[in-house]
Amino acid sequence: MMNRWLVTGAGGMLGRDLVRVLEALNEPVLAATRQDLDITDRFSVRAVVSRYRPTAIVNCAAWTRFHEAETSEAEAHLINGRGARELATICGDRSIRLVHLSTDYVFDGASRRPYAESAATGPINAYGRTKLAGEQAVLELLPDDGTIVRTAWLYGRHGTNFLRKMVRLEQTHKTVDVVDDQWGQPTWSVDLAQQIVALVRHGASGVFHGTSSGETTWYDFARMIFRLLGADPGRIRPVRSDQIAGGELRPRYTVLGHAAWREVGLTPIRHWSAALERSFPLLADEEW
C-alpha cells in the first residue's frame, strides 16, 4: 500500500533528500520546512495532519547547533524533546506511523565496540540529552508505530556538513587539522533517505541505526575526501580532540551496530567508503 508522507524539517539536508527520493518513487509527500510547521505547536501540527491525512510522518526537524545547545539546553529541548512528544501524541491519536531521527550522541563514547541498538544510553552533552528525550517520548507513546533512526556524520548536497567543509578548505588552506581520535561512520544522506523509505514500507518499529557500515576517524575521512579531489592527503594533519574547541564534549567512539536491520529482513547501509566513492561524482559539481 502506498503511504502518504509528511516530512518535517524538510528544508534540511536529510529532509530535502528524503522528499526527492519519495518524489522519484511517485509517493505523495508533503514537505514541511521549519517555516511551514513548528513541531512544538500542537495546534499547527494537528491542523496540518487533519488537512493532509498522512499515513507516515518522518521527523527530520531538530535543533542541531551542537555548541549552542550547551548554553541553550532548554531551547534545544523544546524542539528535540517536546517537539518529538507532540508529534508522537498526535500520531498515537490517529494511528500514524512516526519515524523520528536521532543521533549517535545519545551514547557516551566509552565503548570500543559498535553500540547495539539496545545498548545503554548515556549522553555527555546537552545535544545528546535533548535527542534522547525525544527518543524516549516516541518509544513511550508509540510502542507499535514509533521508529527511532539514529544517524551520524551525515554529509550530502545540502546544508553544512564535513564533506562540504573539507572541499572548501582544500581550496583555501595549505594544510588542514582534523581530529584523529573520534571514530564513527560517515553516512550519505541519500543512502539514509532510501533506508527510511524501506523501513516504513516494511512496517518495522523500534530502534534502528541509520549509519553506513564500517568505521573510520574524521582524519581518515578527510584524507579520502582529499584523494577523491585529486589533492595530497598529506595536507591533512592529525590532532587530538582536546586541541580543538569543544572537543571534550564530543564522544570519542560512536560506531553503531546494525543488527536490527537484519532481524527484520532488511540490509544495512553499505560501507562508508563505497558510499563516498559513489556520491562524490554526484556532489563534486555542486557550488561548495
UniProtKB/TrEMBL annotation:
Function as written in the Swiss-Prot or TrEMBL entry: Catalyzes the reduction of dTDP-6-deoxy-L-lyxo-4-hexulose to yield dTDP-L-rhamnose.
Pathway info: Carbohydrate biosynthesis; dTDP-L-rhamnose biosynthesis
Catalytic class of the enzyme: oxidoreductase
PANTHER family named in the record: DTDP-4-DEHYDRORHAMNOSE REDUCTASE (PTHR10491), METHIONINE ADENOSYLTRANSFERASE 2 SUBUNIT BETA (PTHR10491:SF4)
Keywords: NADP, Oxidoreductase
A Gene Ontology molecular function term of the record: dTDP-4-dehydrorhamnose reductase activity
GO cellular component, one term: cytosol
GO BP terms: dTDP-rhamnose biosynthetic process
Domain RmlD-like substrate binding: 5-279
NCBIfam families referenced in this protein's UniProt entry, alphabetically: rmlD
Protein family: Belongs to the dTDP-4-dehydrorhamnose reductase family.
Protein EC: 1.1.1.133
Organism: Streptomyces rishiriensis
Name of this chain's protein: dTDP-4-dehydrorhamnose reductase
